[in-house]
């Protein structure tokens, strides 16, 4: 029986929540996938879902708290959210479930420890707590007390962090937290480790760090997916290391970046959901944007991009956000986590739906009018698009003999373990491992050609990276005797490999 100390729920609600907790912890509640429709659940059910997820992932044992204590904390989080059109507790619950989906239905959980999961999920639930429905730009332009308190930087994220820390203290939520992993937490108590990770997760939901996060993540993915290529490299050792069925644990900073990316991905995921949900979230976020535009007019402040209800268009806003913000982010995530690929397919389908909704031409002036092609204006503010990164190391590493031999070896292993007949002899795959690196930029005279060539190189490397991951992932599934999944994963591999062959 659930008992709350600090909040009140009716006994009917407590019974409802308890029922849902039981179902979720047994994995028996449907509707928690990417089709999660937050509007179709009562508040008590939502609370039950959140507690149930912690229980399902065995995190109550890590936090060393009861279901009732967690429920009490969650009710307080709900009370901390303002009932705005978009940034309400419903958005928090939605982001929480999408975070859960990203970690539990991909292999990425294998890279994290239980304390990271605790931080990530609490971060997801609290990341917009106290959001007034008027964004950072508004806070700064109106020179209000909040903006001054936080020095005009990441104002709302810092505010949400402070509100979260207050609630964590109020509920002594991290007082007894103890990891079940073997990792020694250095320099910190485990509570401080989780608290620090929560703050970093929340801070990374600031849209102004979006592109920086992509860069950081690309580096981490490179480090995690590349085997050491040097003269000392021994294939046998490499295989031994990776055949235990688990991944080598990334260092703390890299695990933090993975968490930041997962939370940010969940935060902008409404665009990659089935169309009905995508449209509904867009409707409510536009209500909030236009309200901000109205407030800006009223207070003689500069009207934020796309927030003027007289001059904004939903299709235009959605395509711009999807094409320039969401797509590159999920593409990088899908390189690491092929399980995310269906979300990119949804984005593409939603794009068609947006266009068919609106007969006007697709947006022409997508970039700001100041002729600076590296600045993009979206409702979140003006984002700096970084220069294209240097060619990722994947282009180099796939063309080495050692790597090709190892990969071939992997494939033979997979084929043996899974009893799957490869449609091409494994040796053929080494061909796809050799990526034709396009001529270097200095060799290309024309500016247009240069850009095209560079984009092509980037595209090839992205696919190569995906293939490299698919191989490791397939092997891992096979080692774990999850053969059906391994077979499925093999088909991704075939797909990506043939894409690559088209380039070489
Ligand atoms: P957050 O404010 O933490 O939820 O950060 C996500 C930001 O992404 C939002 O503030 C919006 O600026 C932007 N965003 C999310 N979903 C959409 C959408 N469907 N259309 C346009 N912008 C969006
Ligand atoms: Zn959010």
Could you explain how this protein is built, in words?
- Helix content is 61%, strand content 2%.
- With 504 residues, it is mainly alpha-helical.
- A two-stranded antiparallel sheet has the order 1-2.
- It starts with 10 loop residues before the first helix and ends with a helix.
- It binds adenosine monophosphate and zinc ion.
- Zinc ion (ZN) binds next to helix 5.
Strand content: under 5%
Q: Which secondary-structure class do the elements indicate?
A: mainly alpha
Approximately how much helix is present in the residues?
55-70%
Strand order of the largest sheet: 1-2
Radius of gyration: 24 Å
Number of helices: 21
- Give the bound compounds: adenosine monophosphate, zinc ion
Summarize the helix and strand pattern as letters: HHHHHHHHHHHHHHHHEEHHHHH
What distance lies between the first and last C-alpha atoms, to the nearest angstrom? 63 Å
Enzyme class: hydrolase
EC number: 3.1.4.-
Pfam family, one: PDEase_I
Cofactor: a divalent metal cation
